[in-house]
Amino acid sequence: MMIRFGVLGAGRIGKVHARIIAASGKAKVAYLADAMPKAAADLAAEVGATVASVEDIIKAKDVDAILIATPTGTHADLIEAASNAGKPALCEKPVSLSVERIVSCLKTVDKNKSVLMIGFNRRFDPNFAALEQRIRKGDIGEVELVTIISRDPAPPPADYVKGSGGLYRDMMIHDFDMARFLVGEEFVTVHALGASLVDKAIGAAGDVDTASVQMQTASGKIAVITNSRRATYGYDQRMEVHGSKGMLRAGNVHNTTVELANGHGFLGDPVLNFFTERYGQAYANEVNTFIAAIADGKSPRPNGFDGLQAQKLADAATESWQSGKVVKVQ
Amino acid sequence: MMIRFGVLGAGRIGKVHARIIAASGKAKVAYLADAMPKAAADLAAEVGATVASVEDIIKAKDVDAILIATPTGTHADLIEAASNAGKPALCEKPVSLSVERIVSCLKTVDKNKSVLMIGFNRRFDPNFAALEQRIRKGDIGEVELVTIISRDPAPPPADYVKGSGGLYRDMMIHDFDMARFLVGEEFVTVHALGASLVDKAIGAAGDVDTASVQMQTASGKIAVITNSRRATYGYDQRMEVHGSKGMLRAGNVHNTTVELANGHGFLGDPVLNFFTERYGQAYANEVNTFIAAIADGKSPRPNGFDGLQAQKLADAATESWQSGKVVKVQ
Amino acid sequence: MMIRFGVLGAGRIGKVHARIIAASGKAKVAYLADAMPKAAADLAAEVGATVASVEDIIKAKDVDAILIATPTGTHADLIEAASNAGKPALCEKPVSLSVERIVSCLKTVDKNKSVLMIGFNRRFDPNFAALEQRIRKGDIGEVELVTIISRDPAPPPADYVKGSGGLYRDMMIHDFDMARFLVGEEFVTVHALGASLVDKAIGAAGDVDTASVQMQTASGKIAVITNSRRATYGYDQRMEVHGSKGMLRAGNVHNTTVELANGHGFLGDPVLNFFTERYGQAYANEVNTFIAAIADGKSPRPNGFDGLQAQKLADAATESWQSGKVVKVQ
Amino acid sequence: MMIRFGVLGAGRIGKVHARIIAASGKAKVAYLADAMPKAAADLAAEVGATVASVEDIIKAKDVDAILIATPTGTHADLIEAASNAGKPALCEKPVSLSVERIVSCLKTVDKNKSVLMIGFNRRFDPNFAALEQRIRKGDIGEVELVTIISRDPAPPPADYVKGSGGLYRDMMIHDFDMARFLVGEEFVTVHALGASLVDKAIGAAGDVDTASVQMQTASGKIAVITNSRRATYGYDQRMEVHGSKGMLRAGNVHNTTVELANGHGFLGDPVLNFFTERYGQAYANEVNTFIAAIADGKSPRPNGFDGLQAQKLADAATESWQSGKVVKVQ
């Protein structure tokens, strides 16, 4: 039996998700909503769905699951609406830029005992997922030190950053989730540095474009994250975990394996340029994990709690950067 | 306007091709034939095609192009039938195990001025295609020396090799095509070595499982190819081209980028296991190249002549191995 | 004319230095002192030197330069003695574990206008030196973010750490110097994390064995350093500098280039095991830089000021770890 | 007790060897001869030796071993003289360009039961030596296929090649020795291709600058060697051995580990430029192996038989290239 999805949002990420559902062989996009009628109609035509309103989709009897890919400000309300309608939801990160709002939203989800999965897609990247499985399998013993490097190929417009919650909430939030995922414990101490070195307009807009955060768990484990809004060689996505028995790392994915050797040296390709290329397989695995979980009546991770914890770390980092002080997280 | 394909053959490769056509957005599988009714019906259901006989498909007015993925022995006849029906054809390699039959088949194609593309899929691998483009662009000056390494993960059953034409025609033929593609000249001298080191049953069946060939063009350029029917670390597919200004090479694709470091050293993943994984993108690019070419009224490469030349080299290598002598190719 | 050295200290590092001087072709070890008569005699015999007392060596008319490789507690006194005798000195790091004592020592050196070079050997590693030269040449534009990873193969005895000044002063001091060297600016903000995860006895002795520090310059540039007293795969020594035009990194040196591929994957060698192997060439280049500088009447870097600044950062990191707060450095 | 060497030849290779002996701690250069008095005097002064005539050195009572680094044409005579004087000899490759002369020379050595080691230095490269030891240890099971790539950074003057015996005897001889070393069996079938693609003057002088050879043992094992007199990216020295249980390979050594990433991609350093840099450690290990062997009264490899066999393969390759036919080797 095919799982029938209601997809909310037909923007860049909504399209990615809708196409994955349509190609999954186990689910289909039944209905689709977007504030832009043409965007909704075009995507609906492509994936064989019917355009409807958000409200109608959420209450529709022939919709089994909701995929939320609307603007951030609407996430918590739509999660609650889906939960109240008894429908499992896969929502793009973040639940909300407000930790308070996340907490109240999760109360509704808990009360309804409904399924909520949050779209931290990097957990589903085949490289990073394999790395995490090998940590859990014991390949490196006890985790001691995690290093995560994320660099975007180019900065967003300064206008964008104003509404983004800032780099720690908008960009580094993925790394906070990965750090928790890899370490398997909660971080209690957070210190952030930040600067506007790439684009002064980002600094003028009250944000940073170059940042580092170091965090520690109660048992002493350390994670170090560095971010830049610029990388001339592609979308730089690396992580390394050092443990008592060894080290595991996952490197970048290059455009091709071609290498040129001459008097300048040995030249390999730049890395894949941005997230739709780099994480195409991760998005597919994420959606298929959600489909499999609801088919089996299970609660997939990352869930609302994971969304909450990552947001708390992003808030703590933002506060640390603003105050210049170390911030404790409960 | 969608190009309507008639797909002949619903086996492993037929499926790969049919699915690519169905996902191309520019073409569809209109009809599908296979000697096994169930195989035909299942694939037809999957890609939305109608099952029909080979004869009906070739003469059908609502079929624009023929994809031939039937057993080798039928290729030449089907190419001729498609050509006589005025339909462009994409045929899996080889046209025939007999050079004489290829020549007669190509005469028909020439006479009809019909389009024929041969499925040497490796030319369309993103890595190898990029390598070739950079040779043509002049990145390494004049090509001097080509080294190709191909190793299958495991040997085929000895039964299979009996009807395969032998390793040089069955496996190394891809490398002969790549050598011609990379060098851009015809080889005139061929010498082959071979042995049965992996499975004695292969030797007993009159074939080899470990082989090398070195070839030279009239201008002196050299290509060296080594093959093995065994590789414990995956499907090994590498090539390297040395030229007057530098060297270009394309390496293997590993399962993931994860690396484990401990007292044993630094351990990376095995390489992708076999051709459907390793060349999935190559098959897609091949079919899409064919679709684009016939949409534009152009003749794509590799064509029948490329199929003929690769077969001549495979014959020469087989003869060289059998006779222990150097063989000249016209 | 050969430069005549007085070498103070015939321990592990004294031996390394004395042998480099003896092999330099431009200098020789004239005299040698050590508190252990046999150690002094053995090394003197090996390098063709005469054993003498520290005092006699420093005042000897036929000694042109002093190499100080005695225990840390004696460094400042010996630097002053050499300076007062008008002799250039190359002293192992650190000048002193007390910043106050370094300051008073450097006053003497300044007053005498004598040459003092501090043995931060990593600046002379061919890989790291090349990296720094390429930064200065402009290969990556403006430096924005430095990442340094240093991991010892195994922890020292807990007894050792008691007198060492702690990890930040004993081990990470090299990384503080490298961070300054690569960034080319002074750091003003320091935050440290630390834990005892490798050996609880180290924690009981009041020190850490796993640590991270992040620092920022007044202009916003960031450096992140992580240290561990354990690495199962060898002596891990890496650095990476991200700038406005690109990224430069220097990796580890492996035992050999041999790689084994099989069903487990592709296995490369561990990295060189510890500092005498890994930095053998760095020590040689360091000493030869000192010899060339004094032959030319120049003042080589790193000098006393570099020693002072690294010590200030080590003190700040230690204080930050102890207090849990961010520390400002003047 | 120090082994006292007589070194014959103070040219480039004589210097390399004399310095290694002088630094060995277990041997010294007692006497040194060269046709150029100044070359002999300079090197003698450097290593603390006495200049003498070849004849006097060979018969000197206070000489324990002879190192022969004179021009090729004198090797066989000097080996015989040393052997007749009862002295072990380490001779640079080749014994002679004439297989007949090698055979007669080895008869003398056999009759005298004297020690003769031939300077195939690559067996002592730490990378290649480790690779061979791991084959013998069984890491890859039975050897099936060896691939050796050797490329010089730049061609020699055409004048040089005239007296060199040609590429197969002058350059590829090292690879013939390595192929035997790695496979552990004798090759019985040889086929060579060659061309003059780098420098037409080399072709005009009757030699090739680009070449490949494939060879097979009686049991079917295959070795493929390619050579070029040109490599824009340094001295290219690689080998790979494929076996029943896996593959071992040894790569190049790069100038540094520094890598630059930017919009062009990831650029690593060229490889070490030529043999004195690339094989510095190999020469040292070779000489020290000889010293240890004669101290222990053992016969080191590679010996005269190894020199003979490599020369036979070089002759067979030359004949194959000239005749265009496959050549059998006894």
Distinctive features:
homotetramer; 330 residues; alpha/beta; Rossmann fold; Dihydrodipicolinate Reductase, domain 2; 7-stranded mixed β-sheet; 6-stranded parallel β-sheet; 13 helices; 15 strands; 25% strand
Q: What does this protein look like?
A:
4 copies of one chain form a homotetramer. The first copy, chain A, is α/β, with parallel strands linked by helices and 330 residues long. Chain A folds into 2 domains: 112 residues, NAD(P)-binding Rossmann-like Domain (Rossmann fold, 3-Layer(aba) Sandwich); 170 residues, 2-Layer Sandwich (Dihydrodipicolinate Reductase, domain 2). A 7-stranded mixed β-sheet of chain A has the order 12-11-7-10-9-8-15. The first copy, chain A, has a 6-stranded parallel β-sheet with strand order 3-2-1-4-5-6, sandwiched between helices. In chain A, strand 5, helix 5 and strand 6 form a beta-alpha-beta unit. In chain A, helix 1 packs across helix 12, helix 5 runs antiparallel to helix 13 and helix 9 packs across helix 13. The N and C termini of chain A lie far apart (44 Å). Chains in contact: A-B, A-C, A-D, B-C, B-D, C-D. The interface between C and D is medium-sized, with 25 and 25 residues.
The Cα radius of gyration of chain A reads 20 Å
CATH topology term of the largest domain in chain A: Dihydrodipicolinate Reductase, domain 2
> Main β-sheet of chain A: number of strands, strand sense, barrel status?
7 strands, mixed
Q: Name the strands of the widest sheet of chain A in spatial order.
A: 12-11-7-10-9-8-15
Number of strands of chain A: 15
Oligomer: homotetramer
The CATH C-level name of the largest domain in chain A is Alpha Beta
Biggest interface, chains and residues, is: B-D, 39 and 39 residues
| Helix/strand order of chain A, N-terminal first | EHEHEHEHEHEHEHHHEHEEEEEEHHHE
